[in-house]
Amino acid sequence: TWKMTSPSNFATESGHWYAPDGTPAYEVPYADPSKGFRPTTLRDAKKLGLFPSVTGIIRLAAAPGLERWKQEQVLMAALTLSRNEGESDADFISRIYRDSQEQGKKAAALGTAIHGAVESYYQGNSYLAEFKPHVDAVTQAIKERFGEQQWSAEKSFASPHGFGCKIDLIASGIVIDYKSKEFGPENLPKPYDENLMQLAANAIAAGLTTVRTANVFISRNHPGLVHLVEHSADDMARGWKMFEALLQFWKAKNA
Predict the structure, then answer these.
(1) Quick one: pLDDT band at residue 11, thresholds 50, 70, 90?
(2) Model confidence at 124: pLDDT above 60
(3) CB-based contacts of 108-114 (< 8 A; 24+ apart in sequence)
(4) How far apart are CA 136 and CA 144, in angstroms?
């Protein structure tokens, strides 16, 4: 058996597992039931016949945009930190690296909070007032592009191909994924291959053959700024082809 709980206040499919019926299987019980539950592992998944998440599959490919961002955080920490008197090179480098990781954790925490606020809105729940500019901008952009829809937020699916996912927003023939990033009006983000793969795999898992897909990028440092990018059918065909190759690699690697 397994347990559908989330390690944070808001849903995220990173590193998760799914039952063949689409039920999230985030945790399994300890051998000693009195200890409660623990995160599901690959070994558990094999034993229980669980499917890996879309993001878990996509992580097998290089993510140059993410790696560059991590490098920039290290460089920024090196530029802003002062060296302590008598501090060795090794200690200073270690302190620079720790500081850069802290910046990454702060960015991730803010991104999770923004994502959670948008999720809460579409689920009809309350959210912190500080995130209203983000939520308002997202909902306006989506409404302008897709009109009035009956949206379902954070709905989970599993595909007979052997993977599962949670979809940020889904309506009749529409799949949307939103992500927070640092950007301004002068440097609007462009989708990466992983964005195409995620949306294509999500659409396949949801059983949609004719589908409109879009990324909504939410600015972390300019509250109220969003950038919606709708993808073409050719984009989705390419995204699925890339994802399918990674899925076969994952299966071969973890057989």
Answers:
(1) very low
(2) yes
(3) 110/180, 110/220, 111/179, 111/180, 111/220, 112/8, 112/10, 112/12, 113/10, 114/180, 114/218, 114/220
(4) 12
**pLDDT tens column, 179-201:** 999 999 999 999 999 999 999 99
Per-residue pLDDT tens digits for 15-45: 689 999 999 998 988 888 889 999 999 999 9
Distance, in Å, from the CA atom of 212 to the CA atom of 233, rounded to the nearest integer, reads 8
**Other Cβ atoms within 10 Å of 25 Cβ, number:** 21
DSSP string for the chain: --B---SSSS---TT-EE-TTS-B--EEE-SSGGG-EEE--HHHHHHHTPEEBHHHHHTTS--HHHHHHHHHHHHHHHHHPPPPTT--HHHHHHHHHHHHHHHHHHHHHHHHHHHHHHHHHHTT----GGGHHHHHHHHHHHHHHH-S---EEEEEEEETTTEEEEEEEEETTEEEEEEEE---TTS-----HHHHHHHHHHHHHTT-SS-EEEEEEEESSSTT-EEEEEEPHHHHHHHHHHHHHHHHHHHHHT-
The whole-number average pLDDT for the span 207-214 is 93
